[in-house]
Amino acid sequence: QEVEAVCDRVLILRRGDLVVDAKLADLRQSKQLLLDTSLELEAEALAEVEGVCEWERVEPERYRVKLADDADPRQVGAALARVVAGAKAELYQLKVEQRDLETLFRQVNQGVERAA
Question: 76 exposed, middle or buried (CB, 10 Å; 0-12, 13-18, 19+)?
Answer without folding.
Answer: buried
